[in-house]
TrEMBL record:
It comes from the Eukaryota. The keyword Protease applies. Belongs to the peptidase C48 family. Keywords: Hydrolase, Protease, Thiol protease. It holds the Pfam family Peptidase_C48. This is Ubiquitin-like protease family profile domain-containing protein. SUPFAM superfamilies: Cysteine proteinases (SSF54001). GO terms for molecular function: cysteine-type peptidase activity; deNEDDylase activity. GO terms for biological process: protein deneddylation; proteolysis. Residues 1-119 form the Ubiquitin-like protease family profile domain. It comes from Opuntia streptacantha (Prickly pear cactus). The keyword Hydrolase applies.
Length: 158
């Protein structure tokens, strides 16, 4: 099992090779829990030296999701061991982030994209809700059409 995790870390590192000489602030890993068809996000914050788990269905707990999260964190940590800027990521704290929650069973992917965007621009005080999903979908479409990222507003309110 560790051999597979090491291989996954190698794949992640291969994708990051071009950036290895630059300081890294965040590493995002969107995860699909195939057991429940649910997307969630693991974020490594290299500045604060911790892993954050963003789950828009945080009230749902199951062993397969917890195993998936643990596997992702280990894969990222093994990858970050190769970066001179991140220290020993194997010792970092894991935090369940307080984040907006979806009200249905199908918008989890939109929430994950919103989380990544808002984290990357260091937005604070996220107050978005299910009512903002249409706005997020429109921003994603606009980004695809323009060929560049159109960020969500720094402060999103319902």
């Amino acid at each position: 099992m560790l051999r597979n995790k090491t291989r996954v870390a190698g794949v992640i590192w291969a994708a990051m090779l071009k950036l290895q000489h630059l300081p890294i602030r965040y590493v995002f890993m969107p995860l699909l829990d195939e057991h429940s068809s649910h997307w969630l996000l693991v974020c490594a914050d290299c500045a604060l030296r911790r892993f954050l788990v963003y789950d828009s269905l945080a009230n749902v707990k199951d062993k397969s999701r917890e195993a998936l999260i643990a596997h992702a964190i280990l894969s990222i940590a093994l990858t970050l061991l190769r970066s001179p800027f991140c220290g020993d990521a194997l010792t970092w704290e894991v935090v369940r982030a307080d984040c907006p929650q979806q009200q249905n069973g199908y918008d989890c992917g939109v929430f994950v994209m919103a989380f990544m965007d808002l984290i990357s621009i260091r937005a604070t005080g996220w107050q978005f809700t299910q009512a903002n999903v249409r706005q997020f979908r429109d921003k994603c479409l606009l980004s695809l059409v323009r060929g560049r990222i159109t960020h969500f507003p720094r402060t999103v309110t319902g």
